[in-house]
């Protein structure tokens, strides 16, 4: 394994950043990690100043979307210790995504060495206080200059970081998809493949025009089963039971999702992981048993959904009660992430020199 | 409309290119066309020396696959006149693709002005003689530096060109897909969206391992209907009838495909445009009525398929007879493309100063 090269910047740009007003994903830290795949191996792991990269216009990523990514966060506790949340799962998932996109897998040592050294260099960018975090974006792109429609032989793996405030997506109401779809059986929906995201922008813009912020995707075959949102898995609370769709080759295996399911178990909250039909959710809405809908994902942690629409059917969720699940899970997850609660399942990963 | 800026190179690199050995899509001409979308409009249409472009690592194309492309060819006749084949259809299609990916449409004048000026500059790269052509790749990528999962506000439109020899894909045998799929109902399969292509690389690599070069994709719901190949539409000749699947939101509306259908009509060849089931093609194979399978697309024009596999069922197509359709359509199309035959439908577009 080649040694990590670190070229740190002389002057940080951190003083020019207003940490009270941070739009999501627009401000980046001083450094980035990169590593190249050439001649069958990953070489040149390097941390250097954040800045533009130069690619041939024929690079495969531009033409064939051979690209995958991850989304994770670093948190700081009151002692200025830095923590990641289940980072091994992100590592495993980026390689699962890479495999499906015919991208060579990335070595574990490089990933963690690059990631942790980068975080230590950027430690001033991670602010203490619940809600503050550093959003971390590992990604891999096919860089080889050739437009033949076949897997590239050259890639670039990078990690860039963006400081984030507590993510408030605003009031979120959703449309249950009836016409457009996100993924096919036997497709790449379970991978964090770049192309899955751009494909959602247009249908989502149509939802915006109707006053809805997001879409809950349904199965492409029948549009009868609720699957997931654009960047969140989805939970339904019917009476006191928490219901969510099983993962499949169409649905991303969300790390927040599986953490919620585990915390539910730990707290004796009944869960059902099974196909969730649009019909049953509409019926539960009508008969008053539908108490909550929320999304789960790294960016927002837990995002309560205020209402939904399906065809002519429109529904506003009831106001959240004191013992609502979304606040409970958000607090439980945040407490573990910020080192404020016991970490029964070893989800916290402390970043050390 | 901003005026096109042309910065032509002093010294062409053409003398270093071996035109007898041209791998597909690896050698590019001296110039490229580019144009930027900023502040709500397309600006700076420029032809300049072919070379790397510089992008922020957070550019949306790397993360969310917001990118579309086209594939077209320029041909030269014996008088050194340059022709395009139905270029308006490529223009319309890139904008149809762009629309689905929430990318702003590109103005027609810019497209044709940029394309034709580029071709005139590169005219030495287009060699006379049937089979020789210049492959043209227009594409649009989201360049805005921000990783929020929403449509970018900045884009780059480019055209790059690669000289091509007569495309011989080698012997092509295909697998009819049973597990993996290319696109979903309500998805982006009909668009030339970058993500559609990278998603096929892995299943195709599995086919390679079994000795098959390509996959014919089937509908994702049932895998019972044959749709298209990775970069070609597919035709079946059963007795003397030519059958192909209708276009849909899952299938690319190929320009070669619709030209074949028109030429069939002009030549009194019976055609059926309707769902084509795997079962009927296997039955036709068994009873001897399946005479030919071929793919149609800009790169190969017409590509005969020699055999197929579906589960345990393997079939070798019969040897092509003198009056085979694939040679007939290939010649008919090439004759129009190279200005060797009457152009009844005004498909040829002469490139003039
Ligand atoms: C499509 C999709 N679903 C769900 C999620 C939530 O996954 P996680 O909880 O691992 O962030 C994400 C975001 O990562 C996503 O992109
Ligand atoms: C998916 C797909 N199908 C079919 C085709 C053939 O289309 P055309 O004949 O316009 O080149 C292409 C290539 O452009 C393609 O990418």
Topology, please?
The structure is a homodimer of 353-residue chains.
Chain A: E1 5-6, E2 31-38, E3 41-49, E4 53-55, H1 60-64, E5 67-69, E6 72-76, E7 82-85, H2 87-100, H3 108-121, E8 133-142, E9 155-164, E10 173-176, H4 194-209, E11 214-218, E12 225-228, E13 233-238, E14 241-244, H5 255-266, E15 271-273, E16 276-277, H6 278-286, E17 290-297, E18 301-304, E19 307-310, E20 313-316, H7 325-337, E21 348-351
Parallel strand pairs in A: 1-3, 10-11, 10-19, 14-15
Antiparallel strand pairs in A: 2-3, 2-9, 5-8, 6-7, 6-8, 7-21, 8-9, 11-12, 12-16, 13-14, 13-17, 17-18, 19-20
The complex binds pyridoxal-5'-phosphate (2 copies).
One pyridoxal-5'-phosphate (PLP) binds at residues 71, 192, 228, 231-233, 252, 254-257, 296-298 of chain A.
Q: What is the CATH C level class of the largest domain in chain A, in words?
A: Alpha Beta
> CATH homologous superfamily of the largest domain in chain A - what is it?
D-amino Acid Aminotransferase, subunit A, domain 2
| Average pLDDT score of chain A | 96
Give the count of structural domains of chain A.
2
Low-confidence stretches of chain A: none
Structural class of chain A comes to alpha+beta
For the record, the CATH architecture of the largest domain in chain A stands as Alpha-Beta Barrel
Strand % of chain A is 25-35%
What would your notes on this structure say?
Two copies of one chain form a homodimer. The longest helix of chain A has 16 residues, at 194-209. With 353 residues, chain A is of the alpha+beta class. The radius of gyration of chain A is 21 Å and the shape is globular. Helices cover 24% and strands 30% of the residues of chain A. Chain A has seven helices and 21 strands. Chain A has helices at 60-64, 87-100, 108-121, 194-209, 255-266, 278-286, 325-337; strands at residues 5-6, 31-38, 41-49, 53-55, 67-69, 72-76, 82-85, 133-142, 155-164, 173-176, 214-218, 225-228, 233-238, 241-244, 271-273, 276-277, 290-297, 301-304, 307-310, 313-316, 348-351. The mean pLDDT of chain A is 96. The interface between A and B is large, with 70 and 70 residues. β4 (53-55) of chain A pairs antiparallel with β4 of chain B. The structure holds pyridoxal-5'-phosphate (PLP) (2 copies). The site of one pyridoxal-5'-phosphate has 14 residues of chain B, from α5 and β17. Chains A, B: Its cofactor is pyridoxal 5'-phosphate. Chains A, B: Its EC number is 2.6.1.42. Chains A, B: Belongs to the class-IV pyridoxal-phosphate-dependent aminotransferase family.
